[in-house]
Amino acid sequence: MTSRPTSRGTRVRGTRQAEALGAVLADLPAFSSAQEIHAELRRRGESVGLTTVYRQLQVLSQDGGVDTIRDESGETLYRRCRTSGHHHHVTCRSCGRSVEVEGREIERWADNVAAEAGFVDVDHTEELFGRCADCT
What we know:
Radius of gyration: 17 Å
CATH class of the largest domain: Mainly Alpha
Shape: globular
Largest sheet: 3 strands, antiparallel
Oligomer: single chain
């Protein structure tokens, strides 16, 4: 893994810690909090600090390596990105299962709202929560 600077000078390096974090992210089936990811690293015997986990996740999120959503309480959750293009998620409130969706209607809506307000070059995030078929 090559070093990539971020706006705060933090870098993701090809360190043992970064590799361990990548392995955990690859194995997690659902979005997880930084604390849950840190706990899994510790369970696997890795000595990675929680602050390091947060920093690495922030860099990976900025670089597009992980998806982030905010749960209903506002906590940021992370998952290895499965799609390289812009997308949204529908996430089950009960089991945490998440499905990536394109959301063309959301894109049109966001573009229209931004244009009406006089904005251009707008980014957005949309999180949709419900209950999946297995949990209903």
